[in-house]
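Hello, quick one for you while I still have it in my head. My current little project is about how a certain protein chain folds up. You're getting the sequence in one-letter code plus the fold written as tokens. Would you mind checking whether the tokens look sensible for this chain? Here's the protein in full, and shout if anything looks odd to you:
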Amino acid sequence: MSMFSMSFFFLAPFLSIIRAFLNIQIFFSPFQWCLLMASIATFYLKKCSKKIYLVDFVCYKPSPKTMCSKDFFIEKSKCGGHFKDESIDFQKKITDRSGFGDKTYVPESLMVVPPRICTMEAMKETESVIFGAVDELLLKTKMKVEDIDILITNCSIFNPSPSLSAMVVNHYKLKDRVLCYNLSGMGCSAGLIAIDLAKQLLQVHQNSYALVVSTENINSGWYLGNNRSMLVSNCLFRVGGAAILLSNISSDSHRSKYCLKHTVCTHIGSQDSCYNSILLREDETNKITGISLSKDLMSSAGFALKENITTLGKHVLPLLEQLKFASSFVVKKFFNKNMKIYTPDFKLCFEHFCIHTGGKAVQDEMQKVLGLSDWQIEPSRMTLYRYGNTSSSSVWYVLAYCEAKGRIREGDRIWQLAFGSGFKCNTVVWYALRNVDPIEEINPWSDEVHEFPIDVSI
């Protein structure tokens, strides 16, 4: 079939609608004709938009020799000689309240005294995570590297030259026509931004595979000073990474786990307090660099979440929930300033909630705001306990927990939600195409999921 014939075939419904309007000789003004054409074009484009499939994903599980208990972390911090006694006490206080267990992972370079903070060690850490995750994904999906058409990597802190995406191209000898992108400085929400970017690319590149790799580098972000706002990141971030394979090939639907339904990206960086709530900067000595977390962080997250779910709600909420929200908004704006705006019940829209493991305080607030049950927040809490905050890859460890527990059934809807510097709140919604059998599934939880959940309320 020629290109002209194919174009006519797809445009035929569109032309038929126009012909019908002309035949009944309804008079339209030029403005009305423009509105009509725009509406028809919008409808046509939506009908023609490609389905994006998540073929499979892998979460990296580090070597047991890099496992770091809370006591071991404090002991190494003491022995390093960089921190004052009050800074050690502060870090112990943070770790005790972090929601962590004693089996999170740190790089080998930080387990020695003194810690080896350098580009070479940072590269070793990143290579082990990225190559480990991608190798397992290629094996799991039986993909050939020459079939990868789009590559997106994201890492907020560590940005070498050549880029991490170039490192992947070089290591796996990807084809020279691969579309290659590297996202940096976007914090813990970058993994979902990468999914959104992949979606945009897959909408315009037919019959393509996209490989998304999300990680963070602990070595590069390690702080060796005594500023409390910068010490928090040492206590929270741990080693982790994920590799995700996406496809827009219709024949992949039978082997894929999920279909992408929605992505919503919210950026409130126009407000100074939000923009500065997470900042990479030098401390008061002007010599030591670290990630500073401000007191505006939680309020920024709350504002970003509100904006994000307002947009998301239009796509997923039942009409009654939308009306409740809209009516409460109108009443507050025009009649009663003290009235609290109704929070929609997103439990009506989703079976599973994969919330970023930013910390225990973040999880507590998310459970409260969204009205989640202990069962619904459990995957996020257990991920924080077992793996810590793995930044942009954390939502994938949460989803892996749901799979390992046998929770994912055909038709289930999954909401991934993450926050990041800038300040950003990003959402991805998936639809399960099949049951995920935990017996057949191999992921970082498989050999120990029977130990969970555990009580982390203390």
